[in-house]
Design a protein that fits this description.
The chain is built from three helices and 13 strands; from the N terminus they run ββββαβββββββββαα. The chain is mainly beta. It has one domain (about 30-305): Thrombin, subunit H (Beta Barrel), CATH 2.40.10. It has helices at about 75-80, 275-285, 300-305; strands at about 30, 35-40, 45-55, 65-70, 85-90, 105-115, 130, 160-165, 190-195, 205-210, 230, 240-245, 265-270. A six-stranded antiparallel beta barrel has the order 8-9-10-13-12-11. The protein starts with about 30 loop residues before the first strand and ends with a helix. The radius of gyration is 16 Å and the shape is globular. The longest helix is centred in the C-terminal third of the chain and has 12 residues, at about 275-285.
C-alpha cells in the first residue's frame, strides 16, 4: 500500500507507493517539532521500515514510555528471516545516521503485540504495540524534550482535522530515487481530515478514510505505515487519534493520486474504538495474551507494503 502506509493517530501503515516498500509523506513539509513519532529500523536491511508512535504507558512519567504503537502489518518486516533487531530512532526531527538528533533504543526481541483481530486481507485492526528495552530518555541528544502521545480518547467525527507525521517516501518513486528509496531525513508532516469517500476500499469497522485538508495531492506513502495522526488535548498535549494503514484508493502506483486521477486517499486505524483501547490497556497491564505465534501468512498485498 504505497499511499499512506503512514504505516496506520490513525496509524499509517505502509501504503503502496511502489510495489516494494512502505510510505514518508509525499508533498508534505518538514516538521518543526516531533510530537512522538519514531523511525523503526531493522538491522538487515539497515533502513527505515515503518513509522511508530511513543504512547503514554500510564505509569506516571509524562515524558517517558517503553511502548511504541505502529501498524500490525509491519511485524512481517520485523520478524523476517535475517532481519535482526528492530530499533526505534527517537526524538528530534531527523532519522539520518550521525546527526546526533535522535536516541536509539532496541525493541525487546519477540515483543510485537499485534491486535488479535488483525486481518492481513482487509487490514482490519492493523495495530501493534512494541516493547522497548529501556524507557525513552527525557530529552533527545539535541536537548529537545521527547514527546509521548496520549491515546485514551473517543473516535473522531467525519471532517475532523488531524496532523500526520511520517518517515516514509517523499515522492512517488520509482525506487532508487534519493527522495524515495527507504527515505532518510527530516520528519514529514501534513494536515489531514477524515472523509466519507466511496473511493476508499475495504473500509471495515476499525478503519477510517482520510485526505489532505485541502484535497490536494499530498499523502502518506511507503514507510509511513504506523504513522500517527494526532490532535491536541485541551492542555495542548498531543493525542494519537488515528494510525496510518495504507493506500485508501488502491492505486499501488501512486500515493498521491487515485485510480481515477483524483487526489489520493489514505486508510487509518481508529484508535478511539473501545475494543482497541481495551486491548491496548490489557497489553500495557500485562494481561493480554501474546498472539504472535499465530500470525497468519503474509498476503501479496502485505508483501508489497513491507518488502
Amino acid at each position: 500500500m504505497r499511499k499512506i502506509i503512514l504505516g496506520l493517530v490513525i496509524v499509517l501503515t505502509g501504503l503502496l507507493a511502489a510495489p516494494t516498500t512502505a510510505p514518508a509523506i509525499v508533498n508534505g513539509s518538514d516538521a518543526a517539532t516531533n510530537p512522538g513519532a519514531v523511525s523503526l529500523w531493522t538491522d538487515n536491511p539497515n533502513r527505515n521500515r515503518c513509522t511508530g508512535t511513543l504512547i503514554d504507558d500510564k505509569q506516571g512519567h509524562p515524558n517517558k514510555t517503553r511502548w511504541v504503537f505502529t501498524a500490525a502489518h509491519c511485524v512481517y518486516s520485523f520478524t523476517a528471516p535475517g532481519a535482526g533487531d528492530t530499533t526505534a530512532r527517537i526524538g528530534g526531527t531527523d532519522n539520518t545516521t550521525g546527526n546526533g538528533e535522535y536516541a536509539e533504543i532496541k525493541v525487546v526481541p519477540g515483543q510485537f503485540w499485534y491486535n488479535p483481530a488483525f486481518d492481513p486481507n482487509t487490514l482490519a485492526y492493523d495495530g501493534m504495540l512494541m516493547l522497548l528495552e529501556n524507557e525513552t530518555p527525557l530529552t533527545a541528544p539535541d536537548g529537545d524534550p521527547v514527546q509521548v502521545m496520549k491515546w485514551e480518547k473517543p473516535s473522531l467525527p467525519l471532517g475532523a482535522v488531524t496532523q500526520a507525521y511520517g518517515y516514509g517516501w517523499v515522492c512517488d518513486g520509482p525506487p532508487g530515487q534519493t527522495c524515495s528509496s527507504w527515505y532518510q531525513g527530516p520528519l514529514q508532516t501534513m494536515v489531514a481530515k477524515t472523509v466519507n469517500d466511496p473511493s476508499c476500499y475495504a473500509i471495515v469497522a476499525s478503519q477510517v478514510c482520510f485526505s489532505h485538508i485541502t484535497n490536494s495531492k499530498t499523502m502518506g506513502c511507503l514507510g509511513d505505515s504506523g504513522a500517527p495522526l494526532k490532535s491536541p488535548d485541551f492542555d495542548g498535549s498531543p493525542i494519537l487519534r488515528l494510525s496510518v494503514i495504507g493506500d485508501g484508493d488502491q492505486n499501488y502506483d501512486s500515493c498521491t493520486e487515485g485510480l481515477d486521477g483524483a487526489p489520493g486517499r489514505g486508510v487509518a486505524l481508529d484508535i478511539g474504538q473501545p475494543d482497541i483501547q481495551q486491548w491496548m490497556n490489557n497489553v500495557l497491564a500485562g494481561t493480554a495474551r501474546q498472539h504472535r505465534t499465530s500470525l497468519p501468512p503474509a498476503t501479496p498485498r502485505i508483501l508489497q507494503m513491507t518488502s
